[in-house]
Specification:
Strand content: 15-25%
Keywords: Hydrolase, Membrane, Transmembrane, Transmembrane helix
Domain M23ase beta-sheet core: 182-241
InterPro entries: Cell_wall_metabolism_enzyme (IPR050570), Dup_hybrid_motif (IPR011055), M23ase_b-sheet_dom (IPR016047)
Transmembrane segments: 9-28
Number of helices: 4
GO molecular function: hydrolase activity
CATH superfamily of the largest domain: Glucose Permease (Domain IIA)
Length: 278
């Protein structure tokens, strides 16, 4: 186990210990000083600071290189969100190799994607979103190094109450349980030359590939879903310098013929005419 992986595991374990101590203190009416309950939490953040200092910043020179040019992972009309073309880290964190990640949502026609609502409806069915079930394509000839699609697709978080639930409770719990809970169903491709492509929030049961498979650019890998730490059916895509999101650093990318769409930019990718069938 690498030092960065060990540090991440220790960080999660100490956070869990903190919550366990607080619950035990309240439930069992323990008589020790309350500040002892916070000791694991302080140790957790100390581990995080030390690991960053010794392991190098997630966006250090190791990840500073020219953008890797790959094919777009989708076809049709889409909108970019949380784009690295506007700022990095694009998702306001370097964790899980997300420094240069991008989210894309489908909108085949203007207004065809349900809008965010303040209060009602609190949540929507995934089938209401045109991205749900859309095919995802391999961005290059590659080898599948990770593939999982057993997590459920939850309802959208398309209102203020649902978003608050996601940000305050759900996201924190998922982070404690590990990268797999954040990513939901996902595929990781080894593109060669130290670059790995990650597709997150896939639809449950939609995988067309398995770990170890060799895939061709344009091949259908899976479908867009709404699993993991996701507000609505969409694709979260990123490149990173290793196969483990817990330890990898993000890498910049550019899509052939498209570049990197900016936030809220509408872009359209023509249907592929080449590439091996799924």
């Amino acid at each position: 186990m690498s030092a960065r992986k060990l540090a991440k595991t220790a960080y999660r374990a100490l956070q869990i210990a903190f919550f366990a101590l607080v619950i035990a203190h309240v439930a069992l009416d323990l008589d020790h000083a309350v500040w002892w309950d916070f000791l694991p939490l302080l140790m957790a953040y100390a581990v995080l600071v030390v690991s960053h200092r010794w392991g190098g910043a997630p966006d250090s020179a190791r990840a500073a290189r020219e953008p890797v040019e790959v094919e777009p992972p989708v076809t049709g009309r889409w909108i970019a969100l949380n784009s690295p073309a506007d700022h990095t880290p694009s998702h306001h964190t370097h964790a899980y190799g997300q420094t240069f990640a991008i989210d894309v949502v489908a909108e085949p026609e203007p207004g065809s994607r349900p809008a965010f609502r303040a209060l009602w409806p609190v949540a929507r069915r995934n089938a209401d979103f045109p991205a749900y079930g859309a095919p995802l394509h391999a961005v290059a000839d590659a080898t599948v190094v990770r593939a999982t699609d057993t997590a459920r697709d939850h309802l959208s978080r398309g209102s203020l109450p649902a978003l608050a639930y996601l940000m305050i409770l759900e996201a924190g719990v998922r982070d404690l349980l590990g990268a797999g809970r954040i990513l939901g169903n996902h595929v990781i491709l080894d593109l060669g030359d130290g670059a790995y492509a990650l597709y997150a929030h896939l639809r449950r049961g939609s995988l067309n590939v398995r770990e170890g498979d060799r895939v061709h650019a344009g091949q259908v890998l899976a479908q867009v879903g709404n699993s993991g730490n996701s507000t609505e059916p969409h694709l979260h895509f990123q490149l990173m310098d290793g196969p483990d999101p817990d330890t990898a650093r993000g890498m910049p990318f550019t899509w052939s013929g498209t570049g990197v769409p900016r936030n809220n930019e509408v872009f359209e990718i023509p249907a592929r005419r080449t590439g091996a069938p799924a």
